[in-house]
Amino acid sequence: MTGIGGFAGRPVAEALVAGGHAVEGILRPPVERSRLVGLSVPLHALDLLDRDGLRALVAARDPEAAYRANLGGTLAVLDAVRAGAPAARVLAVTSGDVYGTVTPEELPIGEETPLRPLTIYGASKAAADLTAAQWGRAYGLDVVRARPFNHTGQGQNAAFVCAALARQIARIEAGRAEPVVRAGNLDPVRDFSDVCDIAAGYVALLERGRSGEAYNLCSGAGCSIAEVVAILRTHARVAVRVASDPALRRPVDVPRVVGSHAKATRDTGWEPRIAWTDTLAAVLENWRARVAAEG
Questions:
Q1: Distance (Å, rounded) from C-alpha 175 to C-alpha 58?
Q2: Phi/psi of residue 194, nearest 5 degrees
Q3: Residue 44 and residue 31: Cα distance in Å, rounded?
Q4: Number of other residues whose CB lies within 10 A of the CB of residue 283
Q5: How would residue 32 be classed by pLDDT, with cut points 50, 70 and 90?
Q6: Cα–Cα distance measured from residue 259 to residue 104, given in angstroms and rounded to the nearest whole number
Q7: Distance of CA 132 to CAs 75, 111, 125, Å?
Q8: Which residues contact 51 (CB under 8 A, 6 or more apart)?
Q9: Does pLDDT of 57 surpass 80?
Q10: What is the 3 state secondary structure string of the chain?
Q11: Which one, of 19, 10, 41, lies nearest residue 251 by Cα?
């Protein structure tokens, strides 16, 4: 629901909820939530002119669209390769989200960890992963699967956590927002990498990965959202406060997700090389330029 922060927004949202509808609200940054205190619907900080962010938000809530893109797209590529270039190598890129609900005893996550996806995105990627493996076996295709964990870098849109936090700081530095960085749950630990390291991993898998195998691409280290904020604050040019905003929390979140890239390193020699603090510094610098360009 757009306009949820406006005069009629709350009454409309409450009426929809009372009628049994699923409601989520979009608020344009900088976010003003005074009208929405106590309203129990998920809220998303997003500028409607951010087309990529809006599309990602809608797609994440449309199961059919997610499966069409992730499973359907994979099937289309596999079918085209089988028909026109059956000897070509196919790198099927899925996601670390395919693992979903993992227990502390299963960390770090290896490729043999069962796939228990928690989100629509993760389930659609798991379907694509299994399908790619099946086509490789059934039709003799040269398929290698990549399972990248969280990654960020310059140019990422603000629908993703590191970019969203960096954008807030850039806007604060530019005097366009109050000096408060708002985040959802600060406790979850994730395995973050630089997008350039992940890209190098794709090349390594294309060149040296073993046919039929799946490979994690990850840093192998855990970093909480609170630590991401703390690192960004060390690079900020102004003092900022941090507030945990319940409206930005996910309804279900795995507390700790850390992968192992041992298999990719063993088979291809790939390993992450870019320091995480350098990645976040570059993301923030990129957002400074983007905010300045907004006029």
A1: 30
A2: -80, 140
A3: 9
A4: 28
A5: low
A6: 12
A7: 8, 15, 10
A8: none
A9: no
A10: CECCCCCCHHHHHHHHHHCCCCCCEEECCCCCCHHHCCCCCCEEECCCCCHHHHHHHHHHCCHHHHHHHHHHHHHHHHHHHHHHCCCCEEEEECCHHHCECCCHHHCCECCCCCCECCCHHHHHHHHHHHHHHHHHHHHCCEEEEEEECCEECCCCCCCCHHHHHHHHHHHHHCCCCCCEEEECCCCCEECCEEHHHHHHHHHHHHHHCCCCCEEEECCCCCEEHHHHHHHHHHHCCCCCEEEECHHHCCCCCCCECCECCHHHHHHHCCCCCCCHHHHHHHHHHHHHHHHHHCC
A11: 41
Closest among 62, 282, 42 to 184, alpha carbons compared: 42
Mean of all residue pLDDT scores within the chain: 91
182 burial (CB, 10 Å; 0-12 / 13-18 / 19+) is buried
- Length of the chain measured in residues: 295
Q: Yes or no: say if 45 and 31 are a contact pair by the CB < 8 Å rule.
A: yes
pLDDT band at residue 43, thresholds of 50, 70 and 90? confident
Angle between helices 276-293 and 161-173 (to 10 degrees): 50
Q: Token pair of 123, please?
A: 């389930």
Q: Which two tokens stand for residue 125?
A: 């990627």
pTM: 0.83
Residue 100 φ/ψ region, left for φ over 0, alpha for ψ in the -120 to 50 degree band, beta for the rest = left
